[in-house]
């Protein structure tokens, strides 16, 4: 099997440093997949990328055929099969959200255009850099010959945050080791990867000893589930930045691994992914990248689990996260001078 060309943008950054060992070690795309790694970043980060490349070489990975460092998107994306886009312009003190959208719209336009021009027509693109959902839309719209289903935005981080908080809470309430994280299934995040996202525990099941029981069999405090749980998941990124003075990185890398493996290999649980909203039957407007409960069938085939509906009590929150995405899209569209 030929090696897969894998682009990681923002490769000199914190998330790259956590992700690259897992990617090169075969934990993301599989232990049978050889890769040509394309590390893309901006010119001031070239020397750091060189240092990271030295470390990757020192790991003597069996699966890595080539490592290319570049600041040129067209070099990075040439015949690329997979792109994991970590590189974006970070929010700086005093920056308005609109400024952040402007900076990132410019970056993701260039990357989309490069994908359109030189990437494999079958490329799969995962957008991680914030604002991830809108960056994904900008990238997708500048690569019109690539199927829209080949683009997704990372929501798995929020999904795992919710899974972990629920696991901790059940074990606190029912006794240590009552459940493991993998037994807590069907966490759902709706909407945007931002503080407006809607973590929804109403479909969670505990799959233990071959049996799926509703969450309520273990824990049923609605006040916590619809209050502190939601707020803590929504605010987790900010809490990490406050504590670390840096944004999350190792948990992002772990979520990327989960997202890519579910997308490629499929999974029997419902996971949260940001995808283009077109054709959904849940009333979410078209042409935004929205996080839905997704069934992953393997080989990058996914579908919205339409048996899962949000409760009427969440409607206002869903409207809020939808409006935020529409407003981000509106800002990006005005910068580009065309409707996304
Ligand atoms: C996170 O959720 O931890 C990050 O998206 C936060 C950030 O702004 O980097």
UniProtKB/TrEMBL annotation:
Binding site for NAD(+): 10-16, 41, 104, 128-130
Biological processes per GO annotation: malate metabolic process
Residues annotated as the enzyme's active site: 193 (proton acceptor)
Signal peptide: none
Single annotated GO MF: L-malate dehydrogenase (NAD+) activity
EC number: 1.1.1.37
Residue span, Lactate/malate dehydrogenase C-terminal domain: 156-332
All copies of domain Lactate/malate dehydrogenase N-terminal, residue ranges: 5-151
Pfam families reported in the protein's UniProt record: Ldh_1_C, Ldh_1_N
Keyword Oxidoreductase attributed: yes
UniProt-annotated binding residues for substrate: 91, 97, 130, 161
Keyword annotations: NAD, Oxidoreductase
Lineage: superkingdom: Eukaryota
PANTHER family according to UniProt: MALATE DEHYDROGENASE (PTHR23382)
Entries under NCBIfam families matching the protein: MalateDH-SF1, PRK05442.1
Family membership: Belongs to the LDH/MDH superfamily. MDH type 2 family.
Name used for this protein in its record: malate dehydrogenase
Natural source organism: Thraustotheca clavata
Classification of source organism: Eukaryota, Sar, Stramenopiles, Oomycota, Saprolegniomycetes
């Amino acid at each position: 099997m030929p090696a897969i060309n894998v682009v990681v943008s923002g490769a000199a950054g914190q998330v790259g440093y956590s992700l690259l060992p897992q990617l090169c070690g075969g934990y993301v795309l599989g232990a049978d997949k050889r890769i040509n790694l394309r590390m893309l970043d901006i010119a001031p980060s070239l020397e750091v990328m060189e240092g990271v490349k030295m470390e990757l070489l020192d790991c003597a990975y069996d699966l890595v055929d080539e490592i290319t460092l570049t600041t040129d998107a067209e070099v990075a994306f040439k015949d690329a099969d997979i792109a994991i886009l970590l590189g974006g312009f970070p929010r700086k003190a005093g920056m308005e959200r609109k400024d952040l959208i402007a900076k990132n719209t410019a970056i993701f336009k260039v990357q989309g255009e490069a994908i359109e021009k030189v990437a494999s027509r079958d490329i799969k693109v995962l957008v991680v850099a914030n604002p991830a959902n809108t960056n994904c839309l900008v990238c997708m719209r500048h690569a019109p010959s690539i199927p829209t289903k080949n683009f997704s935005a990372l929501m798995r981080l929020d999904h795992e945050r919710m899974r972990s908080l629920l696991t901790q809470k059940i074990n606190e309430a029912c006794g240590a080791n009552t459940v493991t994280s993998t037994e807590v299934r069907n966490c759902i995040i709706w909407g945007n990867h931002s503080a407006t996202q809607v973590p929804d525990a109403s479909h969670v099941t505990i799959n233990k000893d071959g049996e799926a029981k509703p969450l309520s069999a273990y824990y049923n405090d609605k006040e916590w589930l619809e209050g502190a749980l939601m707020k803590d998941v929504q605010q987790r990124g900010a809490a990490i930045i406050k504590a670390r003075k840096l944004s999350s990185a190792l948990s992002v890398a772990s979520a990327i691994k989960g997202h890519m493996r579910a997308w490629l290999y499929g999974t029997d649980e419902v996971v949260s992914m940001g995808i283009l909203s077109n054709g959904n039957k849940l009333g979410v407007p078209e042409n935004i990248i929205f996080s839905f409960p997704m069934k992953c069938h393997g080989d990058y085939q996914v579908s919205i689990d339409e048996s899962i509906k949000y409760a009427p009590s969440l409607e206002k929150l869903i409207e809020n996260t939808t409006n935020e995405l529409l407003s981000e899209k509106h800002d990006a569209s005005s910068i580009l001078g065309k409707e996304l």
